[in-house]
Amino acid sequence: MTEEVDLTNRDPNNVNDHLRVAFEDVLAEPDGQHSMDCVWRLSYKCFTCSKSCCYNILACLCGVPLALCWGCEFAGITFNHVWQLTPCLRCYMINCGMMQKFFGTCLQCCIGPICETCGLFFSNIVVKQG
């Protein structure tokens, strides 16, 4: 495994687009209700810095252990699909195919002649208006 990790684009499939939260997405002052400029600038710096610092601290503390846990979880899911669910589904499909042939043969042998006879019987009925 010589695959390199992309350190620039860390969400190439946009899995977490819903988490893109900027200061402007959370705090906004309507026209006519503005705080002092220095308060607004300081609020912006506090918001962005605390969000970044908290995320980095949590990522450092929990990122690697959680990545290990999620790697094991998805390995287990893959193992379950490869060695249990897919063979079980294949077995089920084989058996259902056989039952389909069996049921179709029974219908052709038992119900088919009855339907054919009824069709011939009712096709000879003539309605006259008079």
UniProtKB/TrEMBL annotation:
It holds the Pfam family Caveolin. GO terms for cellular component: caveola; Golgi membrane. The keyword Cell membrane applies. Keywords: Cell membrane, Golgi apparatus, Membrane. It is found in: Cell membrane; Golgi apparatus membrane; Membrane, Caveola. It comes from the Eukaryota. It is a peripheral membrane protein. InterPro entries: Caveolin (IPR001612). Belongs to the caveolin family. May act as a scaffolding protein within caveolar membranes. Interacts directly with G-protein alpha subunits and can functionally regulate their activity. This is Caveolin. It comes from Batillaria attramentaria. The lineage of its organism: Eukaryota, Metazoa, Spiralia, Lophotrochozoa, Mollusca.
